[in-house]
């Protein structure tokens, strides 16, 4: 049962009770009713603008760094071979984040403007 029958998709001004959410499905219903189905994906373009280049930098760097470090540790320091994924993952992720920092700033500004 609804507490307020005026919380409908009639297009009128929502009453204050309509701004309280009772769960995930309630949020989904109210957003679709009040703003439209397309608003559920608000900010997706901004997130993709950051995700695609970050992953595009991270994966090739990780693979290259891992191959280099595995070759190095196999011949020179076999005891350190177990740390290769940790070091290469950290290095590749740091490089990707540093490279995409300006895109992160633009994404944040885009999300505030939408």
TrEMBL record:
- Write down any Gene Ontology CC term: mitochondrial inner membrane
According to Swiss-Prot or TrEMBL, what is its membrane topology? Answer: Multi-pass membrane protein
Full protein name? ADP,ATP carrier protein
Residues folding into a coiled coil are: none
User: Which Gene3D superfamilies does the annotation name?
Assistant: Mitochondrial carrier domain (1.50.40.10)
What's one Pfam family here?
Mito_carr
Q: Where are the Solcar repeats?
A: 1-68
């Amino acid at each position: 049962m609804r507490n307020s029958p005026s919380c409908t998709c009639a297009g009128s001004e929502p009453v204050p009770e309509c701004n309280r959410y009772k769960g995930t499905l309630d949020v989904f219903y109210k957003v679709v009713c009040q703003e439209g189905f397309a608003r559920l994906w608000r900010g997706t373009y901004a997130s993709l603008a950051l995700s695609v280049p970050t992953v595009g930098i991270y994966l090739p760097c990780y693979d290259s760094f891992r191959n280099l470090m595995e070759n190095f540790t196999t011949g020179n320091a076999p005891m350190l071979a177990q740390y290769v994924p940790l070091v290469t993952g950290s290095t590749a992720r740091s490089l990707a984040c540093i490279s995409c920092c300006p895109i992160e700033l633009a994404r944040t500004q885009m999300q505030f403007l939408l």
